[in-house]
Amino acid sequence: MKKRELVSKIMSTDLITVNHTNNLVDAEKLFKENSIRHIPVVNGDDIIGMLSLTDLLRITFVDDYSSEDNVDTAVYSMLSIEQVMVKNLISVKSTQTIKEVVEILAKNEFHALPVVDDSKLVGIVTTTDILNYLLKQY
């Protein structure tokens, strides 16, 4: 296993983001259409939060998210993305090692980190990216 492999090798760079002024219905649509679980929340060029599919599921009463039935949008209309997203972000740089990223994820309760270089969002790295990297090593 390569010990100094950079996170830039495994991070996703084809980013899907949501603006803080969008609503939760828009966010849910992005999750479903793109089969993703984490979306960086932006205000212009600045990342201000991270929204996860788990965040949405916590505020709804969904038994089976994969069904075609839409979640009652009444719950979504009562809250904004900014109220639901994680605000106190920990980010990493693309020049950090995968090991450093794993250490951060292991110490915290989230499963995705924004990758930020020079105050610009350049990617996202998830636990799935790390697991896929580890699988390739075997």
Automatic annotation (TrEMBL):
<dbReference type="Pfam" id="PF00571">
    <property type="entry name" value="CBS"/>
</dbReference>
<protein>
    <submittedName>
        <fullName>CBS domain-containing protein</fullName>
    </submittedName>
</protein>
<dbReference type="InterPro" id="IPR000644">
    <property type="entry name" value="CBS_dom"/>
</dbReference>
<keyword id="KW-0129">CBS domain</keyword>
<feature type="domain" description="CBS">
    <location>
        <begin position="11"/>
        <end position="68"/>
    </location>
</feature>
<dbReference type="InterPro" id="IPR051257">
    <property type="entry name" value="Diverse_CBS-Domain"/>
</dbReference>
<dbReference type="InterPro" id="IPR046342">
    <property type="entry name" value="CBS_dom_sf"/>
</dbReference>
<feature type="domain" description="CBS">
    <location>
        <begin position="85"/>
        <end position="138"/>
    </location>
</feature>
